[in-house]
Amino acid sequence: MFSITLAYPWMLLLLPLPVLVMQFTRAYKSKQTAIKVPFFNALINSLGEQPSEGASLLKARLWQRIVLVLSWSCLIVAIAKPVQLSEPQLREQLGRDVMIALDLSGSMNEQDFINDNDKADKNATKKMSRIDVAKQVLEDFSNTRQGDRLGLILFADAAFLQTPFTADIDVWQTLLAQSDTGMAGQSTHLGDAIGLAIKVFEQAEQDKQSQPNNNEKVLILLTDGNDTGSFVSPIDAAKVAAVKGIRIHVIAMGDPQTVGEQALDMQTIKRIAKETGGQTFEALDKQQLTQAYETISALEPQLFNSTSYQITQTLHHYLVLFILALYLIAFSVSLVFSRQRDNAKTLVAQSVKQGE
C-alpha cells in the first residue's frame, strides 16, 4: 500500500507568511499625474470641504483571492517535497558461502552403513553404501541452510566443480543426486579438492567486487580415505585456506582401523581442521554422520542480514504543473472578461455617438 510523506515538513511553516506580510506592512503607494484645476481652492471653499490626498485602494476579486491562496499553498507544499513511498521491500543479504567437497573414490561404494529404519531389527542385514548415505544426509543438511549459498565439489583422481555457489537449494540437491562414484576416478586427492575450493571462493569474491562481500567462507570436506597423490599436499592447501579466511570442517567416513590405501589418515585430517579453525568428525554409521552435520549446523548457524527499503517517487513537479495550469486558466478567463468589457464600452460609445 502506498503512502505519502513530506521530505521537509517544516517548510509548511511558511504557509501563513502572506497573512503576516499584509498585517505588518503598509500598502504600496504609487504617484500618478492628475489634471490641475486653477480654481480648485475657490471650488473647495465654496463647497465647505477640506482637501485631502487622493488615493484608491485596489482590491482583488474573489476568484483572484482563490487563485492566490491555491497557488501559494501548492508552492509551499511543493517546496516541502511530497514523496510517495511504495510498500516496504525486503532484501536479504546471504551470510555464508558453504562449499561441500564430496569424496567419490571407489571405496565410497562400500556397503557398511546400516539404515536407521533397520536398526530396530537386530537381524537386519541390508546395508547402504557410503555414497548413498552421504547424499541422503547432505540433502537433509542443505534443507537447513536457507539463506546460505551452497556449492559442491566432487573429487577422486581429480577435483571438479559440480555446482558453483547458489542460493537455489533445489538445483543444488538435483546436481548432488546426479553425483556418483567413478565420475572422477578411484583414488582420493584431498589436497586438490581444497585447492579447487580456494579457487572457487576467490572467484566468488571477484564476481562480487561491486558489492560488499562479508560472507563467511566454510568448506565441509567429506572423505573415507587418505590423500593418494594430490598436486598440493592437504596440509599446505589448508594453510593457504586459513590465510584466505576459509574454515574447513572434515568428516571422516568409515572405520579408522582400516589399513592400506583406504585407511583414514586421521592425523592429516585433524591437522587440516586445526589449521583453519574447523573441527573433525568421525562417522561409522548414518546416525553419526547426521550428528556430525547437525553439529556443523550449530557451529555455522544461518547468518544473513535483511534490510527493508521503500521505493520513493517525488510528487512536487505535479504541484508546479498545477500552479502553471491554474494561472493559465485564470489568465485566459481574465482576458475573456476584459475583452467583453472593452466590447461593451465600445458599444456604449457608439450608441452615444449615434444619439448625438
Explain what the structure shows:
The protein is rod-shaped and about 140 Å long. Helices cover 42% and strands 19% of the residues. With 356 residues, it is of the alpha/beta class. The protein is built from ten helices and 13 strands. The chain has helices at residues 17-24, 40-47, 62-79, 130-143, 169-177, 190-207, 234-243, 266-276, 286-299, 316-355; strands at residues 3-6, 82-85, 89-93, 96-103, 113-114, 127-128, 149-155, 159-166, 216-223, 246-253, 280-283, 305-309, 312-314. Helix 7 (234-243) runs parallel beside helix 8. The two termini are 75 Å apart. The protein has a six-stranded mixed beta sheet, with helices on both faces. A three-stranded antiparallel beta sheet has the order 1-2-13. It folds into two domains: 3-28 and 59-87 and 312-355, no CATH class; 93-305, 3-Layer(aba) Sandwich (Rossmann fold).
